[in-house]
Design goal:
This protein is α+β, with helices and mostly antiparallel strands and 772 residues long. The protein folds into 6 domains: 32 residues, no CATH class; 229 residues, Ribosomal Protein S5, domain 2; 76 residues, Arc Repressor Mutant, subunit A (Orthogonal Bundle), CATH 1.10.10; 219 residues, GHMP Kinase, N-terminal domain (Ribosomal Protein S5, domain 2, 2-Layer Sandwich), CATH 3.30.230.70; 59 residues, Ribosomal Protein S8, Chain: A, domain 1; 89 residues, Nucleic acid-binding proteins (OB fold (Dihydrolipoamide Acetyltransferase, E2P), Beta Barrel). It is built from 18 helices and 32 strands. A hairpin with a 7-residue loop joins strand 14 and strand 15. Helix 5 runs antiparallel to helix 14 and helix 8 crosses helix 9. The protein is elongated and about 120 Å long.
Length: 772
Amino acid sequence: MMIALTNFRLLRYYRSVYVTCKHLYNKRNVYYVKFSTESDKKAGSEVVTFSDGKILQFSTGKYARFADGCAVTTLGDTSVMVTAVCQHSTYQSTTSSFLPLVVDYRQKAAAAGRIPTNFLRRELGPSEHEILTSRVIDRSIRPLFPEGFYFNTQIICNMLAVDGMNDPDVIAINGASAALSISDIPWNGPVGAVRIGMIDNEVIVNPTRRQIQDSMLNLIITATKQNLIIMLEGSANEISEPYLKKAIKWGVKECQNIVTAITKLQKTCGKLKRKIETTEQQEDDNLKSSVKELSEGKLQDIFSNHTHDKISRDMAVNDLRNCVIETLRNNDADLDVKLAEKIFGKIVKDVFRTLILEKDVRCDGRSPSDLRDISCQVDLFNPLHGSAVFQRGQTQVMCTVTLDSLESALKMDTTSMLISGIKEKNFFLHYEFPPYATNETGNSTRVGRRELGHGALAEKALRPILPKAYPFTVRLTSEVLESNGSSSMATVCGGSLALLDAGVPISSAAAGVAFGLVTKYNDKHIEDYKILTDILGIEDYLGDMDFKIAGTKGGFTAFQVDIKIPGIPLKIIMECIDKTTTAKWEIIKIMNEVIRAPRQTKKDKMPVVDNLEISIYQRGKFLGVGGMNLKKIFLETGVHIYPYDENTYSIFAPNEDAMTEAKEMIEDILQKNREPVLEFGAIYTARIVEIREVGVMVTLYSNMIPALLLNSQLDQRKIHHPSALGLEVGQEIQVKYFGRDPVSGQIRISRKVLQPPTSVTKTLHRDDAKKT
């Protein structure tokens, strides 16, 4: 688009707003300016056909054309629109050391054909599922941004339509990949993502929601070209090692088709990537050599001193950094301190990694395949239903188990319920990471994205070992008391011990371990690498991978791979899985020495559950007016009673004494003014206590609840109101008892059957008339 401007200030405004605007020429004081508009952006689409026939479609150029990149991705009838926007700036501060990437995935109730059920009837803050999905998308795209790119970037995933069969999370990952690829934002993609399921040992690509419920595997794989893995996230029902490897290989292969399609879309509709100046380009070679000369040798000594722990090692590095900065400042008063600190951080990383690659020894003295020292303890405090402490090196986690009634199950919000098919969860895990765990200060009540992500991973790892039909809701809390790496996997180990201590009949103990990776690059290819078992916090921070994997002796239950480099070959992932089996068995062996099977002897404070059958005709007396009897029992004993089926009520008591007390109260309620036993077919004298339009209310005994005698059972003749027979309150009539209704439990009585047939009645009436 071309615009003629006569005002030079207006021209400068356009240049400041539209970075792509370009001054062409000046003729007679008229400035001709060209800049990108909606009509200049190309529209196009690409289609991916998976091996099972499912079709994934990409389209761009139709919506949100002010964004740097926008793509709509569709699978089945589920569509997600993803936009990518990066700040337009030609200068970047040297103080930046972290990519400020924000991914917002939002579930829209309208996309699922629903209205939000909150008070305002609109979408409010992000739900836990939205936050977890945003994390998965972030981890899938973050490693491919160029090194030194620290510009504010935002990815927004907007659900347009949901069919209830195809989950939008994987669709959103592919949409983010397409939006970044066609934008002018520097990004070394594209990537492709698929969900892999497995039913009857057969791999299913992008299974539907119903298929996932029957699948033993739920795995999301993100990969880029040349079969390089970027991200793994999933859970399984104790899947064996060969089948897990098969699923990963299959998923990576399917991702290549998506990468190819997005590449074609980028060639036809993509923009030219913008040129940026990173901090690496701004670094001073002289400053780098000075910092390296002052720090490299001392850093080698620090990382080779195996007596250091987390705190002392960090303090030694910090003291050395301060000393180096002070020395440089004395030599140069105009020193750029922030840039010098950044260079020092890179040297720390290089020295740390080089020692591992060359000497095959880690900073704490372990070999790459060694585990840290492990200790654990259960039954910490008597009032707790289940408790355990798991210590691995300097990572310490305390887990507690609380059992409650099924009414305390976690209810899902409406939109998440429609998308996932899960209405409520009777097992959930809450992970807490207070600041004192790393010798810091901060907000101890905040639950961030990291806490939600680690808790969800540990929950996935433990859910498969829980019994399917368990009469309690289980809440497992994990509080990290000390942290030096892999606290989420320590939560799996501690949570398994706490469940056993609580007597929960889990199928087997579960354990988790994290693997790291240190690589040496040569021309963007991995020349050498070391896989590290049971990584420390510093090995996670300065390494290239964090592969968390958990399972039992029978197989794997959860896995999560975070990668910091632009992809890892399948070979390395397979090696990590091989090493996991050995590490997992060693950890479970140590755990079994503390507790091997679920606790059989119940603690004094353990809750109990029982069922109580109440006849239909006794239901009103049992419940009381407005459920008053149940409320009274709950307030006095803490026992919760709720309907289980048509004639059965479930009783949840916090302990055995409360159960006994509640049952005594229930017995008193049912015994009080107990009705006499009526004989089927017997005739009784009933007293009318109320006259209604449909009949009369009568009592056979003074202590009985009034029963309804319908108009149809009052007389042989058809009447519409009891007043036609001259019946009054207090009058006594003869009725015959026919038992109780099997559905409503109401007494069935009749006055009509005791009267002579209608023809005889009419004759008697005629005789009475003649006599008169």
